[in-house]
Amino acid sequence: MMEKILVSGDHYDMGLEYGRMLRQPINKMRENLADLGMIKVMRPKIVPKKWFLNTLKKDTEKLMKNDILKYYPRQWERLKGIADGAGIETSMLILMISLEASGFSLGGCTSLGLSSERTFEGEPILARNFDFPIEFTEYQVVVESRPKNGYGTIGCSIIPSPGILDGLNEFGLSIACNFAYSLDRPTCIIPLSITLQEMLENCKSVDEALDFLKGCERGGYGAIVTIMDMSSNIKVIELSPHNYSIRNDGCIAIVTNHYITEKMQKIEIPKQAVYSKKAPKELWGKRVHESSEKRYSRVESILGAYSKVQENDIFRILKDHGEENQPSDSTICRHTPYHNTIRSTIIYPKKRMIKIAFGNPCEKGYQNFSF
Question: Which residue has the higher pLDDT, 1 or 325?
Answer without folding.
Answer: 325
